[in-house]
């Protein structure tokens, strides 16, 4: 996601340590202390401007959510929305999702969302894709046994790569959609910014997968 630099972003981030952290390693194993109530924890890696995670937090007050986003000017947009309308079950982490195992203890996370991750189409950049095997290993570590990954994309190449990568990692596919929006039985889909923008140009692919093997 390319966004214009927002000179106000670092100041806003520094002013709201109750909503956002830039040192998520400090909360490893202690994330529940940042929320009003201890309850199941779900995280999104690469939240963009936060439309999905904010709507999820509103619809599911019984779940705690963490949005992890690497770009300062992007996570600041989510933060600005939260400052205007705080949600007791949503926290932000300005960080690189590659380091999830440094941010969460094993089994601390119940579900992980990847929405419209950067496709990195060049083969030599495959290791940067958020469904590359090294990322999957990190997700497996922090997710509870049978914890799910929910992955959506409009990018066919990334979808095919992710199916193969998850399969080679030994994950079980609970459900796969080749055209999510054409499935009238899906009633609870929460659209992301990218999904709203790009679904007019082609299908949205979705995978729900779990790690099968014992840790
Ligand atoms: C294409 S955008 C999609 C945003 C949003 N999920 C949506 O669907 O509208 C991908 C986002 O992932 C973020 N991102 C990419 N790599 C990341 C990483 N390693 N850790 C955290 N965020 C990352 C980017 O900064 C960008 O905001």
From TrEMBL:
This is tRNA (guanine-N(7)-)-methyltransferase. It is an enzyme of class 2 (transferase). Keywords: Methyltransferase, S-adenosyl-L-methionine, Transferase, tRNA processing. GO terms for molecular function: tRNA (guanine(46)-N7)-methyltransferase activity. Belongs to the class I-like SAM-binding methyltransferase superfamily. TrmB family. Pfam families: Methyltransf_4 (PF02390). The gene is trmB. S-adenosyl-L-methionine binds at residues 44, 69, 96, 118.
